[in-house]
User: Fold this.
Amino acid sequence: MHYYGNETIMSLEQVLRLQPSEVQILEWVRTYEFLENRFGIDESVPYFLEIKCEAGQVLIRKNRILEFPDYACEEQRHFPEVEQALAVFQQWAQEILQQTEIH
Assistant:
């Protein structure tokens, strides 16, 4: 896990264990653009995810990586509660892990 300003960057595996209270404290979390394979080598993934607490709502984004560092937002959703947003956020993380088969 790394911190850049008010943004916390963590692995997809860490996101799966993230709790709603942690999201509220951290306020802005995104995933790495890489996953470590079984040989300890970083391999790129097609997406990175963001969850961000904003005034009265929680925003999640699924960003497709084009040519790093360029990306495009492929899906964006707003939720009134952290729990609802986190459930979808973690579902997206699981889908990316299954798609890459690195996990």
Notes: Helices lie at 12-16, 20-26, 82-100. The CA atoms of residues 5 and 28 lie 10 Å apart. The chain is about 30% helix and 40% strand.
